[in-house]
Design brief:
Number of strands: 7
Strand order of the largest sheet: 1-2-3-6-7
Oligomer: single chain
Low-confidence stretches: none
Largest sheet: 5 strands, antiparallel
Order of helices and strands: HEEEEEEEHH
Mean pLDDT: 92
Shape: globular
Helix content: 25-40%
Distance between the termini: 37 Å
Radius of gyration: 17 Å
Amino acid sequence: MTLRTILTIPDPRLKKVCAPVIAFDETLRILSDDLLETMYAAPGIGLAASQIGVLLRVLVMDCDKQSESPNPKVLVNPEITWYSSEKRVYEEGCLSIPETFAEVSRSETVKVSYKGLTGEDNEEIFTDLWSTCVQHEIDHLDGKLFIDYLGAVKRGLIVNKMKKLKREKIKDQKQNKKTKGSP
């Protein structure tokens, strides 16, 4: 397993639609292991392959906060086949938009069809936080971010804040290189 770098906005790869997985092989298993390790280390409850720059329809999640043992799920080529009309508002965050949270309304329950790591068909109903998480991560696979549900002004403020943080980070890295290179 390898800890991967999580892309942050405004990286253009986060707005790309991911391609379906065709090969259910060792490479896919390694990708899912890397996604889980990266998600847990972040720490987060969900992570899509696009967030580490891999434009394939793979996501991982583990919303079982009450349990001491992990309950990871790997969904390959997920598709929401049914949405409940009941909505739930949840304050969402995103590993690709650090330290930013906003309330988003999503269906309280969804039915998702997906493939497992060996290509087997699965169908599962997700509720509560699991439902919010799977909808959020599938949005990533479709090139959509949770801030896309916000008004233009609020979304613009968040994007500008992230651009500023990236500039400061690059400036700090350059400064650190200069300092390390000095006698």
